[in-house]
Amino acid sequence: MIDQELEALVVRMAKENRSWGYDRIVGALANLGLTVSAQTVGNVLKRHGIPPAPERKKDWRRLWKAGIRDVMMAICCALPHRRVRMPPWQPMVSSG
Question: Per-residue pLDDT tens for 3-17?
């Protein structure tokens, strides 16, 4: 049996990162200085009714909420800012 805090962290990582498999969770925990085997991660997730990564479906609503702001910022920041020349009878307008 593992510590309850570590078990809660494993469950949280699996829920927040649906594409992560057991080995990826083990690696993330190792980056935090925690040592646990892939078998233990599998046992914890099974105990909590969480299936292996390929069986955890990505929820589009969840992805939308999590990533739309980041995607929109990337698009907006990547667009070039340029000056638009209007016909001679109108003043020059700068977009951006």
Answer: 899 999 999 999 998
